[in-house]
Amino acid sequence: MPTVKHAVIAAAGLGSRLGQGKPKCLVEVEGVKILKHLLAQLGDVEDVRVIVGFEEKAVISELKQLGRDVIVVRNPNFRSTTTLHSYTLGCQHMSGDCLFMDGDLLLEPSSFQRFLASCEPDSPKLAITRTKTKDAVFSIMDGDRIIGFRRDEPTEFEWSNIAWLPVRTFDTIGNTPVYEHLKAFLPIASHEIVSYEIDTAEDMRLALSHTELFGLKALAS
Amino acid sequence: MYRAETRALAHSFEQSPGGVAGHKRPTAFAFDLDGTITRAELLPMIASELGLEPEMRLLTELTMAGMIPFEDSFRLRFAILRTAGLERIRSVVAEVEFDPDIEEFIRQNRDRCFVVTGNLDLWVQPLQERLGCRFFTSTAMTDANGHITGLDTVMRKNVAALELKEHFDRLVAIGDGFNDVPMFDVADIGVAFYGIHSAPDALVSVSNYVALDGKSLCRLLNTL
Predict the structure, then answer these.
(1) Residue B15: pLDDT band with limits 50, 70, 90
(2) CA-to-CA distance for B18 and B24, rounded, in angstroms?
(3) Host H or E run for residue B28
(4) Which CATH number fits domain B2-40+97-223: 3.40.50.720, 3.40.50.1000, 3.40.50.2300, 3.30.450.20?
(5) CB A61 to CB B204 under 8 A?
(6) Residue in A closest to B214 by C-alpha
(7) What does each C-alpha distance from B26 to B29, B31, B158, B166, B188 come to in angstroms?
(8) Is the Cβ pair B208, A64 closer than 8 Å?
(9) Per residue in B65-108, pLDDT tens?
(10) CA of B197, closest CA in chain A: separation in Å?
(11) Do A64 and B194 touch (CB under 8 A)?
């Protein structure tokens, strides 16, 4: 049995910085919706939960069409809450550890699978990726452990917004950015992956110049 | 006129295993029947058997559009279908397919699973026998020979949910239709089910989870 049994994908946000007027998980890259790409990377995870908010009907329809037996968790307060709130809703009633990730990521499949394979019970781990933009959560490292986060001055690695954590990490409803909440749990081990987050049009342009990395051709229909 | 002697469907909590008077049990699961546990809607199935599909469809559409209240709609549907005779209706109902995962979950959790359906007690009795859990239903009146003479009560799902809440600390409701909204309103956790068709927006808007098939639904219920 794979160690990673639970995964929570936060896909409730407005995605206003990208400005496509739809949830970012429904944005297509090379004809493949990000949601489809992410679910394909989680093929071995038994329990996948997708947190929906903005345009929830469209996301639910897409999930139904994809035919993957995920659980949809509603975050009706998506306009006034952060991803932290979605993570708390997503892992409610679960026990043990869970993989938490944003719904706006493009992943290089083999590096992400290595991250999944490296996850062990009760052993928190954050996926990091080489710093690509100025607007990211930069990791302050001590060896391969993350000892701090900062937003102002870039470091070599940024947090990829993917985390393997005990569900108790999110046992109280908070409304800060996730990395602020995680500061209380540092140091946490890290594992490097290749990933691109799509927050802005500039992020999208950057990701589009590396589409060969993401294994999208196999998913295009 | 007599009330139906179908107290098999009645719900005596005194008999429930582990149930101690004055002590609430932790969690109950209240399932809608049509389109949630069953893979087809019962009333259209019966109508189809009787060649009354268009009439039933029109009524369903008007009800879904909110033009006829559920209770009136049920009375009309009852009036249309009762002509079929009880045995014929039961034989159609008895054949309906269950979602295998939901059926298994109910079998494993019989003493805390309940079916809350607007359907008539006498019509759905074969399904109660198949599932072996307690049903909350609309109820019929019968004559001395056991023939249905009329409707006694029409199910209001919030009433059943409130009764369950008296015996359980927490109620999880699972359903796919407009008439499940009052049940979700009372429940602590609502799971809208997108099994055979999408749940109406009104129901999704009062739910905590949306389950896309029986397998993932039961995986979720097992964690609650």
Answers:
(1) very low
(2) 10
(3) strand B25-31
(4) 3.40.50.1000
(5) no
(6) A69
(7) 10, 17, 19, 11, 12
(8) no
(9) 778 888 888 888 888 888 888 888 999 999 999 999 999 999 99
(10) 10
(11) yes
